Structures are given as C-alpha cells and as structure tokens.
Amino acid sequence: MQGYIYPNEYELQWSLLIVLYPYLTGLVAGAFILASLERVFNVKEVQPTYRLALLTALAFLIVAPLPLQAHLGHPERSYQIFLTPNTKSAMAMFGFVYAWYLMVVLLLEIWLDYRKDMVQWAQASTGWRRWLYYGLTLGATDLSPRALRFDESAGRWITIIGIPSAFLLHGYVGFIFGSVKANPWWSSVLMPVVFLFSAIVSGIALVLVLYMLTTMFRWQKIDMPCLDKLAQFLFYALVVDASLESLDFIHRLYEAEESIEILGQLVENRLFISLIVLQVLIGTLIPLIALGTTSPALRKGGMFRTPPDLRQLIYLTSAVFVQIGIFSIRWNVVIGGQLFSKSLRGLTVYKVELLGIEGLGMTIALLVLPFAILWAIAKILPPWPESEAVRPAAPQTA
Amino acid sequence: MRSLPQQVPRLAIVFGVALGGLFVARGLLIPDTFGDRGHYRAAAVDSIAAQPVKFAGRAECAVCHDDVLKPHGAGNHRGVTCEVCHGPAQAHVLAPLEVKPSVVRKRELCTACHAFDPSRPLGFPQIDPVAHNPRAPCIGCHRPHTPEPPTPPEACSACHGHFARQKAVSPHAALTCETCHQAPPQHRTNPRAALPGKPESRTFCGQCHGTPETGVPQVEMESHGQPNLCWQCHYPHYPEIR
Amino acid sequence: MTPDGARPSGSGEVTPAQGGSPVDRRAFLGHVIEAACAGSPLLLGVVKLPALVAQESGGYDATEHFYGMGVDVTKCIGCARCVAACKIENDVPEEPYFFNTWIERYVLRPDGRVEVDSPNGGLDGFPPIEDEGNVLRTFFVPKLCNHCENPPCVQVCPVGATFITEDGVVLVDEEYCIGCRYCIQACPYGARYMHPDKRVAGKCTFCYHRLVKGKVPACVEVCPTGARVFGEVEGRATPLAQFMRFNDLQVLKPNLNTRPKVYYANLDVEVR
Lengths: 398, 242, 272
Fold this sequence. Notes:
The structure holds 3 protein chains of 3 kinds. Chain A is mostly helical. Chain A is built from 13 helices and 2 strands. Chain A has a single domain (2-397), classed as Up-down Bundle (Formate dehydrogenase/DMSO reductase fold), CATH 1.20.1630.10. By secondary structure, chain B is mostly helical. Helix content of chain B is 38%, strand content 0%. Chain B is built from 12 helices and no strands. Chain B has helices at residues 7-29, 42-49, 58-64, 66-74, 82-86, 90-94, 107-114, 161-168, 177-180, 186-189, 202-209, 230-233. The longest helix of chain B is centred in the first third of the chain and has 23 residues, at 7-29. Chain B is elongated and about 120 Å long. By secondary structure, chain C is α+β, with helices and mostly antiparallel strands. Classes of the chains: A mainly alpha, B mainly alpha, C alpha+beta. Chains in contact: A-B, A-C, B-C. At the B-C interface, α2, α3 and α8 of B face α2, α3, α4, β2 and β4 of C.
C-alpha cells in the first residue's frame, strides 16, 4: 500500500476469478467468430477447424459463468438476475445475453450442423450410444434432401445472427467495465471494442493451438494451408487489437485527466510486468513480428520462406504467447482497475490466494475444466474432418 | 402450403419449454412486494426501518433528566448531546432501572475532542494533555455539563499554539500577540463570537519597518507594495526577511 | 464566503442535536408529544417501548420527506464520535476495513504535496503530523455515502437489491443482494463495502430506522460541534435548509454527475 486509499478499499472486490470470466468469454466469442469465417465468409482453408471452433466455444461458454457464480456472496440467489433484472444495469443483461448466445446461437448451430451425423451415428451404433444420439437429434431423423437443405440454410442464418451475437457477448463484457464512471482506468468508450478484438485474437489463437495439438495427437497430418490461414487471421486481428490498445493509451496520455498521475504510478509500480512485459512485449510485439514475417499475412508465402515444421513451431509459440498476453490484458483491466484508490491518492496490493474458493487452485481448475468438457463433447460429437459424414454437395449454393 | 421441416416443431418444443419455465419461475419466485414502489422489494424498507435504535437521542433523555439538561442546554457543551459522553442509551430508555448508561471519568474521553491537534479548527478549545495537569481527572476542575475554562486562558498560546511556536522562532519573537491583535474580552470565553482584530493599515507596520531608528529591516513605505496591506504579502508570524 | 453575521456561529446555533428538531416541525412536535406521553409510564416500567416504536414508525409517510446532510468542514474536530456511534448503531463490523462513515485528515504541504490518512476511520485518533512546522493547511473531513440523486450503485445493481427510497435514501436489501460487488465498484466515493458475515453490500443508511422514528442519524446525534447537519433538502424550516441557505456548498466529485445529497461547506479543493 502506498499513499491514501479509502478505508473500505482495503479489500479488493473482484479477484482472480473475475479475471478469468472475461478471458473465458473472450475465447468463446473469438472461437465462434473464427467458425463463422468458414460458414459465412467462405474462407475454405479454415474448414478443418470449423467444428472444433464451435465445440471449443461451447465448452468455454459452459464454464464462463462458473467463476462469476463462485465469486458471488450469495450464489444461491443468482437466479434473481432472471427474475427481476434491473434494466438499467449492464450486469443484469448477463443472463439474457448468455442465454441467447448459448441457446439460440451456439447450441442451435451445433445441433443443425451435427444433426445429419448424429442420425447416421445413431443408426451405426448400438446400446446406449444409439439412444444418446437419438436423444440428441430430438427425434428429428429426417435425412431427406429438403431437411438437409433446411439444416444448411438455417445454420447459415444462425451463423449470420451469431456474429453480432458474439460481438454482443464480449463487447458487453467490455461494457461492464467500460461503463464504470467511478473508475478512470476502466471508464472508456473503447473498452468494449478492445475487449472484442482481443477476444477474436484469443479465440483464433486457442483454436490454432487446439487444432495443432489434436491433429498431432491423433497422428494426422496438419493441414498447412489451414494453419497458414489461421496464422494470417491471427496476425490481422492482433494488428487491430494492438492499434486499439495503443489508441486508448495515447488518448489517455494526451487528455491527461485528473487521474493520469495515479494511473502512471499504477503502470510503473504495479502493472509493469503484467502490462509492459507480458501484455505488450510477449503478448503483442513478439507474436506480431513472428507472424508478420513467417505467415502469409503480409506477403504470399511469408516474408521469409520457412519450412512447414519450423512454421508450425513459430505459430504454436506465437499462439501460446498471445494467450499469455490476452490473459494479462484481462488481469490488467480487472485487477489493475482495483489497485489504485478512487481517491486517486494511493495504490493498494492484491495477493492471490493459493487455495480457497477465489484462489489460484480454483482458477486453474476452471481453466482446465473447459478442456475436459471439450474432450467429453469431442468423444460424443467428434469434430475431426475424417469422422464427418460426407456433407451434401455444394452446400452454399443449395 | 408445404409442411414445416421436421426440425422446426422439435426445436419449438424445446424453446417453448425453456421460455415457459422462465415465465412460470418468474411468477412463482418474484417476491410479493417487489416493484410496489420501484424496482426493489418494498418489504426491505420496512425491515430496515424496523432495526432497533441504540442511541435514544437528546429528546428522550430530556423526558426524565430535565434537571441536567436545562443548564446543559445553556452551557458551552450544549451542542454535545448526552450520548456523546454517556454512550448509547436506548437500552436505558427501555429499561431505566435495569440498564444504566456509563458515567465517564476518564481523561481520554475529554481529550478525544480537547487534546491539541493542529488539524482542528482554529479557536476550538484545546489543551496539551501531557502538560495540562496530567493524570488529574478533567472533571476535578471542569463541570462536563456546563464547562467553563477555570480561568479564561491568559496566554493566547493556550489555543493558538501553532502561531505561538512559529512566532517564537521568528524575528518577531519579541512582539506579543497584543502588539498586532486586540482581542475583545469575550473572545476568551466564546472565541468565535468575538474575533480579534488585525492591523488594518500600512502605517501600523511602518511604525517599525518605516522608521530607521528602530534598527529593524526597512522598506520605502510610500512605494513598496502599494496599495496592499503588509500582511497580505508577508507572513507576520514568521516574516521571511531577517 | 460565509456571511458570519448572518450565521449565528458558536452561540445559539441550532444544531439538530441540541434543538432536538430532527426531521421537521411536524414530526418534531409529534415526537415531543409522544415522548411526553410515553415518558412517565415508561419510568414506572408499565409500558414496553417496542409498542411505542411501532406506533411511531406506523405514522411515517416516506413521500413527505427528502433527506440530505450538510457537513461544515471547518467545524469538524476529528474526534470520530460519529464513526464510533455509527458502528454501534448499525452493527458495522469492527474491523478497520468497513465503514459507513469515516474521518479523513488532510495535511497540505507548502510544496504542494497532499497527505491524507484515515487510520481505522479515525476511530483511534490520528498520529502526530510529521514535520509539523512545514504545513500549509490541515483539516478533517467526514465522509459517508452521499445518497446521490443519480446513484451509480443503484444503476448497476443487476437485481434491484439496492435502491433509492421515496425519501431519497439509498438502501441495500440484505435479503435480496446476490453479493456481486458491482455497486462497490461503481461507487466513486468508496462508501460501500462487502459485509464480511452477511456477504452482501453494506453502506450508510442515513440511519433509516431512526428517521422513521423522528430521530436524526446517529452520527448527527453525537457530533459535538454541529459539523453534521441533517434534514430535508427542499425548502422546509430544518437545520439543513438553514445550512444550505447560509453556506457556499460543494459536493464531492461533481464532474461524475452523481448529484450527491451530502453538501459540504468550506470544502478544500484537494478533497476528493
């Protein structure tokens, strides 16, 4: 502690769990937007990751509200947010945005995309798996061309609705912070946009890592054009994200409002490692340089010709670095915004608990959980290209 | 008209059940008084209003203790309500014979307000608890209900210690407070009601600083700093020119 | 500048505590009559007071009131009787991290440095000022919930567990609060905290349970110098109305448009 903080500010209100929440929703939104690249924008190269991205989004979306729930003083009352939502409250919309995204967008799109496969798997398997797949189809087993055409076109429409919904989901999370006028570190109109683009960055990077790892562990060959395309989009998203972050930073410096002094101290004393080193250097600059030179983002075939094996390694490392950087962004926003007093006269400290419901252990558990869920879902609904039943020919023209 | 694809009714059932469930839950679970007076549970206001009172308030004390409160209300402690010193007394109001409020004899209670602290407003009566009759209970000399300073302070430093200390190490150390400030007698007993004066003309300072015979630093009174009063630029309790 | 002639300072000043006129004349009169009637049987132990209390609050009409507070910074002596009384009256947790009201001490140095502290909210007194000779200005400032007319805490509450009552007091519904702490983040004044046992947001209630019984908040009741003045914000003959008429008023962080109803007189520019 240094300087003066209000007596009620000794306790930090939002802990590591609340860092996790925007990180997880960001991955959801990012993964979904990647999936929609193939579906809506016809980026054929990334097709192998389409289903993986959808299932990743679903797995992380299931976990996303858990840190919030665990953090509540009265988790047993959380249902009230559906009963008496305060229409003036940004947070009250959480339940509805979440429900909309889960029910109307993600589950529906996955269901429509997998329905034909589920019917065929049900027919091909026996015992409980047979009943599971039948149950999952909701009994809609019609595989006539007309029904399949409906799946395809409805799925496409839902993806189109899904893109603004994904924007909404994560832009909204940014708004929760950006609209707190009491907190000069948070209060920024750019916050939702920054959140959104960092979400896209993190989602693409996550799917890239997952695609590489799952392909390698299934002893399959990595589809290099797909990977190059992913790296290319990761680079573009990173450029936009870094530009927005810099704009926000320059804007604050230039306006130099009342809070600039304490925010300067905050960055120098409390956030130096997490902001300057992890977020800017490791999370942004290094991946930008690595991807910019080796991926086909700036020049077809990359600035430097690199053998595919090396490129895979560079992509993988960059994507992991990007994840570290994005997690640091969430940390810097959520924790950083609470490390200075609203009296603008002092800084406080945050010590991460090791165990306990808001501790490091819980955070790691909640970070591992989506992967476990993804593994389970992938067992039931394999997203791998080779297990996919042959798609109807020329779906886009159907 | 062609029939809908099979998927549509199946999905409609799922979504219908989910939405219906939400509406049923809303009907069942929203508290009764929610929304009666605004977007909140009106019953909460009543339960907050029903919290027990602990500080009874002076009016309650007056019901029985008029003999004390009448003189108290005319004395210098009239703004200090009973429970400032005697503690919360609602329990005593409810059960006058069983519960008795505390009678305080400790110096600490008095020094909570009257120990010298430079952050306190000017003129608030303060003492140095270490120098001022240490260990003697305050109520030995002062009547807490109608306190008067035993003798109105002779030295200005009793209240204005920080000025006195500054002046003591300044070139003006030899001057008394009365040299520049004429305090009406009432100021000693009721400081804010009658404030001391301060020099209102340049010639006042000129008596020394415009008169070479005095041997103090001189200025050209006619030209220097016109038309301001000297103390508008120079701090007389610690003048900067030596 | 305060018209000192117009404001009867020191002598004969009407503080709510001494005058005993807590809310408004009507309530005051009723209160005195009730107190007079209630007093003697009480003394004999005949009537139990809870019945009387219920009777008093029963006649309370929230729509007839709109409360605010005045704080005269130049009268605060930093004794923190208000902090102590508040903790007792409202069962505020005793740990030094939970305060409905607290006292800040400001020490402004000639070189422009500003030192602020509030050890245990001022409850245990303040340590001596270091380098006491090198002080430009120093003073105490009482802080509490500002009971804003446009409160960001109420705006952000997702479920409607914190709200403004009809008489302008910002309250928390302890049985409905989910403990998300968004209101604590949204309050620019640090006036809210997470109650360690109840796991819900805690804050100043203006001693709402006292208001409905015609009493002033505990902090106002025990303020020995009349630095705190309580009453109706709008045009009634209450101490606050007088305070607002005769002082130049300021509120904290006016740029945030929260429209506080705790009005400060003689507030220093460095206070925030």
